[in-house]
Amino acid sequence: MIENIHISNYALIDNVDIVFDRGFNIITGETGAGKSIILGAMSLLLGGRAETRVLRDSSRKAVVEAEFSVDGREDLKQFCLENEIEWDDTSCLLRREIAPTGRSRAFINDSPVNLDQLKSVALKLVDIHSQHQNLLLASPPYQLQIIDVLALNESRMKEYAVRFDAYRKAVKDYVMLKREIEKANADEEFMRYQLAQIDNLKPIAGEQEDLERERELMANMTDVKESLRAVVDALDDDSPSALSLIKDAAAAVARISGVVEEADSLGERIEAVRVELQDIAETFADYDRNLNADPLQLEQIENRLNDIYDLERRHHVESVEQLIELAENLRSRLTRIDNADEMLKEYQQKARQAKAHAMETAREISSARKEEASRFAEMLRERAIPLGMKNLNVRVDVTPAEMSVTGIDNVEFFFSFNKNQEPLPVGKTASGGEISRLMLSIKSIVADKMELPSIIFDEVDTGVSGDVANRMGDLMQLISRNIQVIAITHLPQVAAKGDAHFKVFKEDTETTTNTHIKTLGAEERIDELAVMLSGSSVDDAARANARSLLESNK
């Protein structure tokens, strides 16, 4: 529920703070006092348009802030945590600011948020019901929502949403596979030709680099052989060679082994070097003997590389590995073509099964809607007839529709307000006052079924009086037993039923006009009701009537 509202520098409001009651809150005031201004400020929290013309003082920002109690609201907690918004398990603070530059900023629990996030949270906390909102009653989605709320379809709709998404995905997969196969069939001959070229080449991963190295070696055979010969000569063949010098060094060390203390260990190290160098020399000598220039082999290498390069150019790839990958891709696509009929049947069967699962839940939802439709029609008639619509007839049709995100039904409300009149859609038969009373009746029916802590009624009782006004007040009072109600009204019959009463009024200073709001005490409330009952002059008789009206509504 709304704990309190703060408004500053907005239109005629300099600074206003309102602390609301948990039950039925009444707001009254003369026409033009500023009741609509307060409602306009509240609409900013629900994503309303921000304009600099609402700034009372163009040099300061306007601020609208509302604190809500949110005990047990796990849905809001989850939303805030998912969007990295600060969360408090007991209260939620919504704020909207309009800077002199026209820039608008939004906050939830002091965390900066975008307007959509603010609106998402605000709509779960408060419902502003005005004459404009009455247009919703003619909206099929709104009519469907009412029936689903009363039919307790929330859990079924969540299950259906999952199954319907699975069905749509299965259909999409089937369609995409069918298109892929159709395209593949058109390209099949060319793909088989491409695959045959690659398979005939029989590419091996890494062979291109090996062949290029081997070609480089054979192309430079003379230089390589000369270098190998130079290495072998330096190590072993020429005199003096590295090995012959090391042998001489080893013999010299042996002669002093009995004289120099470390001669033996150093001699062993020299011997180890000689053995390693001997092995290196022999390896290079073997390599030199086995390395021969073979023109035929070089030609074969060149031909193989040319075949590889040619195929790479044709397929716009840069390596043998990419050719191998392309071949595997072609083979996979051709396998899908070969197995196309079986795959299509499999995907089609998955789509049919997904649709059957979705239809199963959709039928449960439809059955619940049909059962609730007749109950709702009768309940709405019972609630609305006492509001001056004694000949009201209500019919709710639930008719088959193509499967969609909302199920397999169309829901439409039909009304007639006169005897022997065929019920028609609400937009074709009801006046503004009748629609307003119907909406009030609907709100009273769904109030305890919807997770909506607060509702604001903006002069929904306009155009009625007497007993009908009294009954409309009773309905709003009934709603306030389940959720917090704030009603802006001009009717004393309604105002007398509130648990708390607030008065909006204007005061003039030498330079400005200011809108204020205050909580009325017992005697102030009697005076306010007396004015509403009798006009601007208040006498003892008017006060007595006001006091009697309050007593009768205790």
Task: Outline the structure in words.
There is one protein chain. This protein has 18 helices and 15 strands. With 554 residues, it is of the alpha/beta class. β1 and β2 (13-19) form a beta hairpin. α5 (154-201) packs antiparallel against α12. It starts with a strand and ends with a helix. The model has no long low-confidence stretch (mean pLDDT 87).
Describe the secondary-structure layout.
Elements: E1 2-10, E2 13-19, E3 24-28, H1 35-45, E4 62-69, H2 74-82, E5 91-98, E6 104-108, E7 111-113, H3 115-122, E8 126-129, H4 140-150, H5 154-201, H6 207-219, H7 221-237, H8 242-255, H9 263-290, H10 295-314, H11 320-338, H12 340-384, E9 393-404, E10 407-416, E11 424-425, H13 426-429, H14 432-446, E12 454-458, H15 466-479, E13 484-488, H16 492-495, E14 500-508, E15 513-519, H17 522-534, H18 540-552
Parallel strand pairs: 3-13, 3-14, 8-12, 12-13
Antiparallel strand pairs: 1-2, 1-4, 4-5, 5-6, 6-7, 9-10, 10-11, 14-15
Helix pairs in contact: 5-11, 5-12, 6-10, 7-9, 8-9, 12-14, 14-15, 17-18
Question: Quick recap of the structure?
Answer:
With 554 residues, the protein is an alpha/beta fold.
